[in-house]
Amino acid sequence: MGEEERSLNFIEHIVEDDLASGYVKKDLRFRFPPEPNGYLHIGHASSICLNFGLGLRYDSPVNLRFDDTNPAKEEKEYVDAIKKDVEWLGYNWDTECYASDYFQQLYDWAVELIREGKAYVDSQSSEEMAEQKGTPTEPGKEGPFRNRSIEENLELFEGMKNGDFKEGTHVLRAKIDMASSNMLMRDPIMYRILHRPHHRTNTDWCIYPMYDWTHGESDYIEQVSHSLCTLEFLPHRELYNWFLDQLVDSDKLRPKQREFARRNLSHTVVSKRKLLQLVESGVVNSWDDPRMPTISGLRRRGYTPESIRNFADTIGIAKRENIVDVSLLEFHVREHLNKIAPRVMAVLNPLKLVLTNYEEGKEEWLEAANNPGDESAGSRKVPFSRELYIEQEDFREEANRKFFRLKLGGEVRLKNGYIIKAESCTKDDDGNIVEVQCTYDPKSKSGSGTEESLRKVKGTLHWVSVAHATPTEIRLYDRLFTDASPDTHKDKDFMDFVNPDSLKKVTGYLEPSLKDAKIGDRFQFQRLGYFNVDTDSTPENVVFNRTVTLRDTWAKLEQKS
Q1: 17 is in an annotated binding site
Q2: Residue 139 annotated as binding?
Q3: Residues 35, 155, 387, 423: which is the catalytic one?
Q4: Whole-angstrom distance, CA of residue 101 vs CA of residue 112
Q5: Residue 549 marked ligand-binding
Q6: 36 is in an annotated binding site
Q7: Is residue 254 annotated as part of the catalytic site, yes or no?
Q8: What's the CATH code, domain 103-211?
Q9: Residue 272 among known ligand-binding residues
């Protein structure tokens, strides 16, 4: 039991303390509250895993609640994408909720606050309100409309609701304390006028509630026990509680807000505004571009739900913000794909190799294990012939002892095949090697059990048969930014650090077993990395994305803090 307690994160300790001090387990309820104004990213994945993980740990319901209070930026497309992402990560919500479900209740409560003298309509401009709000070191001043009569406030607020006024002419503010040390308590705005159609309520409303007013009240309506937010909402907790103080019934559960630190990922940005800028400027093709840190982008690139959940579990929940090296995320996808991805052969930078002592027109089909670490994965047949492709970088005319691949006069084993020896090579007019002539040892076939097959050579190369290879579009993705923290430079824009080599397209040559690969299928291209079939694929034109290289080519995992 003690070991289990030590494994709890601080949020779980809060829940445990609440249960010990009077909370009833059956009353626990959590929620994940995204705003549908963009696609979810890797930062949201941590929050999803936290809230739904608590639901699983305590066998408690978790609501998926859309904070849809800004029709100017929200779309049904984003709602659908968010639902797909949460389901793909492996989680099921108890109730699908929308802040817009509560618009009438929130309006009725706002009217009550006006009647109690706790809210008023302010007709100042935004610049005037900002000026009279004061500074962190100077108290604010009461505005000229702060003491309007209740009757006038009610009349104006109803007019705002009915669409009688232009945007920006009036707002509804809570009447709290213009001298508060917490500037969020200096009469915060509760409602603003927006003449925009809403993705669910269309034009039913001309006023929309602000997040701080909506947040706690939505939690209260849904009877959420623990409202978990990122650390920037810590100053908002006082306001969250003030709004609840005005409304809660003693016989109902009162939600509590608690905060955890946002985890930023190196070599990326997660601001929705900046992600949208990447899309609109054409740096990436879409929200689900495989270079994007969005969950849909990671899914399209070939990441697995398990790898993202394992990543979230590893970085844990903390009280201080920090930057997590993206290498850790890549480590987790490598670790999972290593277990589940079939091994196949593909050549991305081909060099022709001819076995001069192999009979012309002859072919044979060699046995190849799909995953040497998993016997249940079975095996497949790969074709072998006189002419093969190997990688350009796997051959040198001359090389030192540390080069364990093919060189003139040297021997290597072809994966699942034979031991070969390079005898000569052919060059074009520019001196580039275009063909290597080799001989093969017909008695050295892998798995044949002959003395020759047991002979040790230092290098093993992957290959494909020229006659059987399928030319295929391969998209080699890399990190989108060259800088570990591209949006923290005061003198430079984050766009200055876009990696010009974040995407390279090449024609690869694949073994024929891959011609029937389906969208989303994942493979290890032996010695090259992990790849999956992209959504752009058609039966006539299969496209593969590189998910991640076999090894970290940017920084070693041990260097992460």
Answers
A1: no
A2: no
A3: 35
A4: 19
A5: no
A6: yes
A7: no
A8: 3.90.800.10
A9: yes
Digit-by-digit pLDDT tens for the chain (561 residues) are 444 444 799 999 999 999 999 999 999 999 999 999 999 999 999 999 999 999 999 999 999 999 999 999 999 999 999 999 999 999 999 999 999 999 999 999 999 999 999 999 999 999 999 999 999 999 999 999 999 999 999 999 999 999 999 999 999 999 999 999 999 999 999 999 999 999 999 999 999 999 999 999 999 999 999 999 999 999 999 999 999 999 999 999 999 999 999 988 999 999 999 999 999 999 999 999 999 999 999 999 999 999 999 999 999 999 998 899 999 999 999 999 999 999 999 999 999 999 999 999 999 999 999 999 898 999 999 999 999 999 999 999 999 988 999 999 999 999 999 999 999 999 999 999 999 999 999 999 999 999 999 999 999 999 999 999 999 999 999 999 999 999 999 999 999 999 999 999 999 999 999 988 999 999 999 999 999 999 999 998 999 999 999 988 765 433 543
Asked if 505 is an active-site residue, the reply is no
> Considering only CA atoms, which of 102, 37, 367, 69 is closest in space to residue 189?
69
323's CB contacts (< 8 A; 6+ apart) are: 263, 264, 265, 266, 484, 485
Q: 533 a known binding residue? A: no
- Annotated catalytic residue 272: yes
pTM, to two decimals: 0.93
Annotated catalytic residue, options 192, 272, 300, 386: 272
Return the CATH superfamily for domain 346-462. Ribosomal Protein L25; Chain P (2.40.240.10)
Candidate list 83, 141, 146, 262, residue with the active-site label: 262
Strand, helix or coil for residue 229: strand
Q: Which CATH superfamily groups domain 471-559?
A: Ribosomal Protein L25; Chain P (2.40.240.10)
**Can you read off the two tokens belonging to residue 75?**
């779309």
Closest CA to 279 of 299, 303, 296: 296
3, two tokens = 């070991």
